[in-house]
Amino acid sequence: MAACAQLLLLWSLCLCSSGSVLGLKPAGGPAEPPNPPGLRAADPPGKDAPAAAAAAAGASQPRRATGWKLSEEEACREDLTRHCPKHTWTNNLALLECLQDRREEIEIAPDCNHLLWNYKLNLTTEPKFESVAAEVCKSTIAEIKECNEVERGRGYLVSCLVDHRGNISESQCNQYITKMTGIVFSDYRLICGFVDKCRDDINRLHCGSINVGHKDVHSQGEVIACLEKALVGEAEQQDHVRPIKQECQRAILRVAELSSDDFHLDRHLYFSCREDRERFCQNTQAGEGKVYKCLFNHKFEEAMSEKCRDALTTRQKLISQDYRVSYSLAKACKLDLRKQRCSLDTNLPRAREARLSYLLLCLESAVHRGRPVSNECQGEMLDYRRMLMEDFSLSPEIVLHCRTEIEAHCSGLHRKGRTLHCLMRIGRNERSTAIDSVCQSALQTLVQSADPGADYRIDRALNEACESVIQTACKHIRIGDPMILSCLMEHLYTEKMVEDCEHRLLELQYFISRDWKLDPLLYKKCQGDAARLCHTHGWNETSELMPPGAVFSCLYRHAYRTEEQGRRLSRDCKVEVQRILHQRALDVKLDPELQKRCMTDLGKWCSEKLEAGQELECLQDHLEDLVSACREVVGNLTELESEDIQIDALLMRACEPVTLAHCHDVVDNQIDTSDLMECLVQNKHQKEMNEKCAVGVTHFQLIQMKDFRFSYKFKMACKEDVLRLCPNIKKKVDVVICLSTTVRNDTLQEAKEQRVSLKCRKQLRVEELEMSEDIRLDPELYDPCKSDMSRLCPNVAFGNAQMIECLKEQKRRLSQRCHQRIFRLQEVEMSDPELDYQLMRVCKQMIKRFCTEADARYVLQCLKQNKNSELMDPKCKQMITKRQITQNTDYRLNPILRKSCRADIPKFCQPILNKASTDSELEGQVIACLKLKFSDQRLSPDCEDQIRVILQESALDYRLDPQLQIHCSEEISRFCAEEAAAQEQTGQVEECLKVNLLKIKQDSCKKDVLNMLKESKADIFVDPVLHTACALDLKHHCAAIPPGRGRQMSCLMEALQDKRVRLQPECKKRLQDRIDMWSYAAKVAPAEGFSDLAEQVMTSPSKNYILLMIALTVCVLFLVGLLCGRVTKRVTRELNRTSTSLKKKDCLLSPSFSPPLLPPPPLPDAWSVCNQRQHLLLLDLLCFIGCC
Q1: What does the pLDDT look like over 16-37, one tens digit per residue?
Q2: Least packed by Cβ within 10 Å: which of 271, 312, 625, 1051?
C-alpha cells in the first residue's frame, strides 16, 4: 500500500464489538504502553494537540517503568471508584472504556478528562504500540500482503490491520485491534489527519470547537455527527451548494464505514441509543453491524426515542450515499459486486457507484436476469430495500423534489412508509392536486431501486395493510413470492379485500405499471421477447427512444397477433401479458398510456365515475366524443377486450356464477375467449346471472356496436366481406345492416352464389340475434323511439327484448318515426322468426318439442299449427297469439300469405294498395278484401288455402280480426264483455255478436258480422261453434264430402231437411239458428249482384224449390220462343218475296230498262204489305214479353 494510503488509513477509525481485553500479554511484550502520560491538567492540548501531548508526556515522570495503572492516578481515582466496577481497576483499557462510555448525566473531573485524552493519544502514536500489534498479529500480517509490506515505526501497521480486520482470523489479534480502535474513536481529534481535513468545515458549520475548554472532550462524537448531518443534508439542498470540502466528505464517509461493524464506535449514535439498545436489542450481540440492523428495524416503534431515531436516520442516509457504511451489506455483497461487475461502470462517477441505489439496481438486474447472487447478499438487499420504502427521507431526491407535496399533504405521516404512499396517492389522483413531474420521477426511481414488486414485504405499509388478506386469500403462496401481489390484485374489489389494503395496493401498482421491469414475473418471462421485438435495454437501463411504458405496449400488440400477421410472443410471455392486462382493467390509472392520452377526457366526461371500472366504461361510452389520441388507445384496448374478455377482470368476477353454470366448457377447454362472451350473451337471462354481470355484458354489447372491430369473431369472420361489400362503413350496426341486406337480396333473387361468405353469414346470424335482444343494440330503432320509451314504457327493462315488446304492444300510440321502425322490425321478424327474441325465448322448449325438423323460416308457422295442442305451454301459446294478431294487421307481415296471394292481392285489392303507406299497417283491409273473395270462391287455390287458415284462426279468436276489433269494439264491450274477458278464446265472442246481430246499430260492425255469416256458409270450419256441435254428424253423414266451397254445409242442410236423417240435437239447433241468421241477413243485406243472388239461392233452405221453378220458367220460355220463331219465319219469307216484286217493278219503270218477253206476276197492294209488317212486329213483341 502506498504511503499516502497508509496515512489515510492511520487517521481512520475502527469499530469494536467484543469485550475488553483484560490482561492481554502477548509473548515478548507488555500489555500496556511503557510511557504513561503525565497528570498535568494545567496544560491541555491546544491548537497543536499532538505537540502538546508529546510535551506533556515528556514533562511527566513515570512512577514505574512498567505496570503503570490508570487507577492509581489521583486525578481519576475518585471517578473510577464511583463509576467503574472494581474488577476493571487493574486493566487500563477496561477503565478507559468504562469512562468514555459513561452516561451523559455523569460528569468526570476535568483533570481526569485531560489525563484520559493524553493517554489515548500516546496509545496511537507510541511506536512500541505498533510492535505489540506486530507480535500479537504476527501470523495475520504474514497472510495480508499489504500489511506485511508497510513501513514500520510510523503507525501504519495498525491502520492496515484496521482496514483488513475483516480478514483477521486470529482471535487475539482481532480483539487487540478492535479494542485499541475503540479507545481512540471517542474523540475525533485523536484521528490522525481528520482534524486537518475537516478543520475549516467544523468551524464553518459551527459543529464544535477544537479547544478542549469549549466542550467536553468525551462528547466530541457530536462533532462528527454534526458533519455527518451536514453531509447528508447537502444532497437535499435545492441550490446544490457543497458546504463540505471533498476531502472532508471522504473522511466523514470513511469514519462512518470504519465504525459500521460496532455501534459503540459511532459515539453520537451510541450515546443517543444506549437505552433504546437495552430496550429493543438487549439480546443482540455487538459486532458485524447487528446492533445497527436491530435498531433500524425498531426505528419507528412508539417507544423509540426521538434522539435515537434521528441518529439512526442520519446513519441510514450515510448508507444511502455509500453502501460501504453498512458493514453487513458490504461484506455480504462484496463478491457479488465483483462478480456482477457493479464497480466497473466507466460511465458513472465513483461517487455514484458507491450509492446504495446503484448497488441495488445493479444486483437486482442480475437477479432478474437469472444470474447467481448469494442468498446472504439478497437478504441484505431486502433489508435495505425495505429501509428505503419505509423512510422517504433516506432518498435525497424525494426530500429535494417532493418537499412541497410533503408539507402540503403528507405532514405527520413520516413513519412506516406512509409518507411515500401519501405521495403515491397524490400521484395517482390527477384531478385534485397534480404532483410535480420531477417529484413523480423521483418516486418512480425510488420504486425501481426498492423493487417492491419482487417482494411485497419491502413495502411495510402495504405489508401491514394487507396482512389479513394475504393470510386468507393468498395463504397458498409462499411468503415473499412475487405472486403475492398478483394474488392481491386478483382479489381487488372482492369481499376478502379490506379498504386500507386496496388503497395501498393501487398506490404501489400505479408506479409498478409504469415500468414493465418492476413486475418480476413479467420481466422474467418476457425479457427475451422484449429484446427481440421491442429492442429493449438491460433491467437497470433506460432509453429516451423506448421509455419503460412503451415496452409493454409493444408486448401486448404482439401478444394477439395471428401467425399470418407475423412475429408473436412466446406462450409464457403472452400469459404474463394477459395477466397484466387483467390487472390494468381494474383501474384506468394502471394503464399509463391510457391515463396520459385521456387525462382531459377523463376530467370532461368521467369526473363523476368513482367506482371501480367505471372510468373505462365511461370512456367507451363517449368514444365518439374523445380526442383522437384517446379514442385510438381506448379503441385498441376495447378491441383487445373483444378478443380476450377475461382482460375485464371485474366483469369476469361478476359473471363467475353464470360462467360456472353455463360456460364451464368454454373455460375448461380453453376455447377462444371470445366464445366466452358469446356464451355469456346467450345466457344473459339465466337465473345465475346477477345484475352486475348482466350490466357488464350489455355494456360490452353496446360498445361493440360502435365499431365492428370491437367484435372479434365478427371482425375475423367478415373482415374481407366488409372491405369488399361495405367499404368506409365503421359502425357495427351499419355493417350488419349492409351485409344482411346483401344476403337477403341474394336469397330473394335466388342468386347462384351468395356474395357474403359462409363463415360471415354464420357470424352475421349471431350478431343479428344479439341485436334483437336489446333495443339499445339497434340504434336505428333506439334513437327514433327514445321519447316513446320514456312516455309509454317508463319502467320496462331494456334487456330480454322487453322494451321492444312493449313498443309493439303500444304500436297504435307510437310516434310516426318509431311506428315505422317497429313495423319494419316486425316485417323482418315475421320473415325470419329466429330474430324474434321474445318468441324464441318464450317458446324455446315448444320449438324443441314440435318444430325440431322445421325450417327456421317456418318456426312460427309450425308453432301456430300446434298452438291448440294439449302439450303447448300457455305462455308460448299466448305469445303465438300475439304474433298472429300482428300478422293479421297487414298481409306484408305474413310472408306465406304474401307469397301465396301475390297474384290475387293486386287483382282484387288494388284500391286498398293505392291508399296504403309503405311503413304503416293496413289494419287488415287487404285480408278482409281477400276474405270476401274467398266467399265468392274467386281466389287461387294457394291463396284460398291461406285465407281459409286465417278465417279458421280468427273464428276462434276475435282478436285475430283487426277489422272486427276496430268496428265492433263498443258492441263487444256492451254485449260480449264476459266472453271477451275469457282467457281461452274459442269463438264465443263471434257467436255472441251473431246472436246479437239484431241489436247491433253500427253499420260497419253489422256488416262485419254479416260477412262472418257469409264466410261460414262457404266453409263450416270457419264457424267453430257449429263445427263443434256437428262434428259427429259430419263424420256420419258427410264423411265423403270434401271440405270447402260450402259442400259440407250443404250436406248438413240436406240432412236437416231429410226426415229420415236424425241429427244431433245440438247440431240441429245450431243449424236452425244459422238458417234464421242467414234469412235475416238476406233481408238486411239484399244481394248486390248476380253472384250474391246465386249464393243466396244456393245456400237457401228452399234451394231445390227455387231451382225447380227456375227450370220450369226456362222451359215455358223456350216453348213460347219456339212457336214465335215458326210464325215469324213464314211471315219473313212472304215479306222477302214482296220486297223482290217491288224491286222488279221499280226496275221496269226505269228508262233504261228493256221489257222482258214474259209478263210479270200480279203484285199485292200497299195495304196488305203494311198489315203483314205490323203483324210481324206484334209477334216479336209477344215473344219478348214471354221471354221476360
Answers
A1: 333 333 233 333 333 333 344 4
A2: 625
Whether 790 and 844 map to the same domain: the answer is no
The residue-averaged pLDDT of 371-397 equals: 90
**Read out DSSP for 1097-1156?**
HHHSTTHHHHHHHHHHHHHHHHHHHHHHHHHHHHHHHHHHHHHHHHHHHHHHTSTTPPPP
The highest-confidence range among 9-13, 919-923, 1067-1071, by mean pLDDT, is: 1067-1071
pLDDT at 288: 84
CA distance 172 to 178: 10
Dihedral angle at the C-alpha atoms of 372, 373, 379, 382, nearest 10 degrees?
-100
> Which of 788, 807, 831 is the C-terminal boundary of a domain?
831
762, 843, 1080 from 859: Cα distances, Å:
19, 10, 43
User: Are residues 520 and 583 both part of a single domain?
Assistant: yes
Q: Give the DSSP H or E segment for 253.
A: helix 246-258
C-alpha cell at position 232: 447528508
Give the count of domains, the chain. Answer: 6
Domain-located, residue 274: no
Q: Please indicate, yes or no, whether residues 799 and 860 belong to a single structural domain of this protein.
A: no
Contacts of 645 by beta carbon, 8 Å cutoff, 6+ apart: 651, 652, 673, 674, 676, 677, 680, 700
Single-letter amino acid code for the residue at 500: D
Are the C-beta atoms of 969 and 1004 separated by less than 8 Å?
Answer: no
Residues 956-1000 have pLDDT tens digits of 888 888 888 888 999 999 999 988 888 777 888 888 988 888 888
Supply the range of the domain harboring residue 861.
835-889
Return d(Cα 701, Cα 708) in angstroms, integer.
Answer: 11
Shared domain check, 787 and 822:
yes
Report DSSP state, residue 635: H
Residues 523 and 555 placed together within one structural domain of the fold: yes
Would you say 640 and 560 are in contact if contact means Cβ atoms under 8 Å apart? yes
* Cβ atoms 268, 311 nearer than 8 A: yes
Share of the chain above pLDDT 90, in %: 17
In a domain, 1069, yes or no: yes
Whether residue 816 is found in the same domain as residue 865: no
pLDDT confidence of 1020, banded at 50, 70, 90? Answer: confident
In a domain, 931, yes or no: yes
Lowest mean pLDDT, pick from 579-583, 889-893, 1091-1095, 1145-1149: 1145-1149
Buried b (16+ CB within 10 A) or exposed e, 1165-1184: eeeebeeeeeebeebeeebe
Confidence of residue 498 (pLDDT cuts 50, 70, 90): very high
Share of the chain above pLDDT 70, in %: 77
d(CA 527, CA 522): 8
Q: How many angstroms separate the CA atoms of 318 and 300, rounded? A: 18
1078 pLDDT higher than 90: no
Q: How far apart are CA 337 and CA 346, in angstroms?
A: 15
Q: What gap in Å lies between CA 298 and CA 304, rounded to an integer?
A: 7
Separation between Cα atoms, residue 122 and residue 101, nearest integer Å? 20
The span from the CA of 249 to the CA of 244, in Å, is: 6
Cβ 1011 vs Cβ 934: under 8 Å = no
Q: Which of 1086, 1102, 1117 is the last residue of a domain?
A: 1086
Give pLDDT tens digits for 289-310: 899 999 998 888 889 999 999 9
Q: What pLDDT is stored for residue 124 in this prediction?
A: 54
Residue 219 scores a pLDDT above 70: no
The alpha-helical segments, DSSP class H, found in 214-349 are: 221-234, 246-258, 267-280, 290-297, 306-321, 327-332, 334-339
What element of type H or E holds 831?
helix 816-831
Q: What cell numbers appear for 418 in the block?
A: 406512509
Taking the CA atoms of residue 66, residue 72, residue 74 and residue 80 in that order, the dihedral angle to the nearest 10 degrees is 130
Helices 758-771, 712-725: crossing angle, 10 deg rounding: 120
Provide DSSP, 838-880: HHHHHTHHHHHHH-TTS-GGGHHHHHHHTTT-TTS-HHHHHHH
